[in-house]
Design goal:
By secondary structure, this protein is of the alpha/beta class. The chain is built from 14 helices and 29 strands.
């Protein structure tokens, strides 16, 4: 109750001329749009009172956790209980009309008389026309078209460490009768997937870790940084200047906090690796695989990359051996075409996730080691083969040329359509070296998302802001259904260490870079 008392103290100055709120029985006003219902019952109608004795017992009210949501592209990482309570007092929340009482940290959440209430099933669609608006949404109606905001780190649809925290916001339904399906929530059905960007720790990365002797741990020790200005790099492009915050290790902790994590691994790990300060031929220390697994918990890597051929068959076989030794499943390359097209399948508490990868320059053939080639026939063959073996199928293409563009190309539109047609549930792309477009629509198995590219994660292209910045994807599934697709922006500093950046300030540009060219036309709950 200590937190409740603190909340009441902080809000004391705000609680002026407010009433206890409820939407039960609300009717549209004469001026209201048909899609909007304005809360109008008096405070007296909702004051707590002892029930009168009755010969017929009153049904137990149905109470459930309710999510705080805004539009999918809102940059806010979360909301505090104090901020949420203040929004309620100020009439700045949209709430479901089916809910009669809300409680926050054990106390009734007070809402202004002019609070807008809407039928629960219309709220997600209404938010698409209301950027910046915060609403409350039953858990069964959460889709990727809205973004769930954690409350003081507690998150119904977040990573494991956030799901175990006591969730402070509860709703009670108006009236009696069976609970609607959208009120149901089971934390055991939630699974989060983390996906990072292009990874090739040669050149600047290995210069820092091996030549300067900082060690591979240093590459994963990034926390967060704040920009202090910009200098001019190649072609007069802006390159950020930065200062560190006091939170080393925060980025690796974010990636590691997951039920499943995937990575695009670009380059061959070989025993006779060497340092490359320049050029585009790469070799990686095989010890890196163990650090990738231990520091970030990566479960799956696609090795379907153009650079995976830099050391030909030996590079592919040694890379596979290093990943196997680290316990990282892989797809996209192999000792022949069949191996290259084979999926990586991971079981997450009874739900099987399958991953398949390809590259446009792939050369794997019958009896010939290489990377799976991104062709319509190969895509369909690999996706069709795994469709019946997995519950969720995720395609991980390396799209190829042209690089360094955030928008979707005509060729990618065609390739994406082919992946949908052949059985992919979602697409997590890479290869353009900048964070790029996303799309969301309704597929045969529910909402489906495609991402063009995350950007560089451990790759030393430090000549421009857009090649240094990227996004970590946090995708949340309820059972097998995608319900959240959230982005965490980062920047690579010192040529080899990714660090988080504030999505409300320094990270806003890279977030907009993904959302601006995107297509979101979803979703059905």
């Amino acid at each position: 109750m200590g937190s409740s008392r603190r909340l009441r103290t902080e809000l004391a100055a705000l609680l002026v001329a407010v009433t206890v709120w409820g939407c039960a029985g609300s009717q549209p006003s004469a001026e209201a749009s048909p899609s909007m219902l304005w809360a109008s019952p008096s405070a007296e109608a909702f004051r707590t009172a002892e029930p009168s004795p009755s010969a017929h017992p009153t049904p137990t009210p149905i109470t459930f956790p309710i999510a705080v949501v805004t539009r999918y592209d809102d940059p806010r990482p979360g909301i505090t209980a104090v901020e949420l309570a203040a929004q309620g007092v100020q009439g700045r929340l949209v709430v479901p009309c089916e809910v009669s009482v809300l409680s926050l940290q054990g106390d009734r959440l007070i809402l202004a008389d002019n609070t807008l209430c809407l039928p629960a099933e219309t709220i997600a669609a209404e938010l698409q026309a209301r950027p910046g608006v915060v609403a409350l949404l039953p858990p069964g109606l959460v889709t990727p078209s809205v973004k769930v905001l954690p409350i003081d780190e507690a998150d119904l649809f977040g990573a494991p460490s956030h799901r175990v925290l006591d969730y402070p916001l509860l709703a009670r339904l108006s009236g009696a009768g069976p609970a609607p399906a959208w009120a149901a929530y089971d934390a055991a059905e939630v699974r989060t997937l983390t996906s990072t960007g292009d990874t090739c720790p040669d050149r600047g990365v290995s210069h820092q870790t091996l030549v300067l002797g900082k060690g591979w741990d240093w590459a994963f020790d990034g926390g967060s940084v704040r920009y202090t200005g910009f200098r001019r790099g190649y072609y007069n492009w802006p390159v950020p200047r930065w200062d560190r915050n006091d939170d080393a290790g925060a980025l690796a902790a974010l990636v590691a906090d997951h039920d499943l994590a995937v990575n695009d691994f670009e380059c061959p790990m070989v025993s006779d690796f060497s340092q490359h300060d320049t050029g585009t031929g790469f070799t990686i220390d095989p010890a890196f695989a163990g650090f990738l697994a231990s520091r970030t918990g990566i479960d799956v890597a696609t090795i379907g990359s153009n650079h995976m051929n830099d050391r030909r068959a030996s590079g592919i076989s040694q890379t596979i051996a290093a990943l196997d030794a680290a316990g990282i499943a892989h797809t996209g390359a192999g000792m022949d075409r069949n191996e290259a097209l084979a999926p990586a399948i991971v079981d997450v508490r009874g739900v099987k996730f399958a991953f398949v990868g390809w590259d446009e320059g792939g050369t794997a053939a019958a009896g010939t080691p290489g990377v799976a080639r991104l062709t319509p026939a190969n895509v369909c063959e690999s996706l069709n083969a795994v469709r019946e073996a997995a519950d969720v199928v995720i395609a991980m293409p390396q799209w190829g040329w042209p690089e360094y563009h955030p928008g979707i190309t005509t060729q990618q539109v065609s390739q994406r359509a082919n992946m949908w047609r052949c059985g992919a549930d979602h697409i997590l792309g890479s290869g353009t070296h900048v964070a790029s477009w996303a799309s969301l629509d309704n597929g045969p198995n529910g909402p489906r998302v495609a991402l063009g590219s995350h950007g560089n994660f451990l790759f030393d292209q430090n000549w421009a802001r857009w090649t240094m910045e990227g996004v970590i994807v946090e995708a949340t599934f309820y059972g097998t259904r995608l319900v959240q697709f959230r982005l965490h922006p980062y920047v690579m500093v010192e040529g080899g260490q990714p660090n988080l950046i504030d999505p409300l300030t320094d990270g806003l540009k890279v977030m907009a870079q993904v959302w601006a060219p995107s297509e979101f036309v979803c979703c059905r709950p």
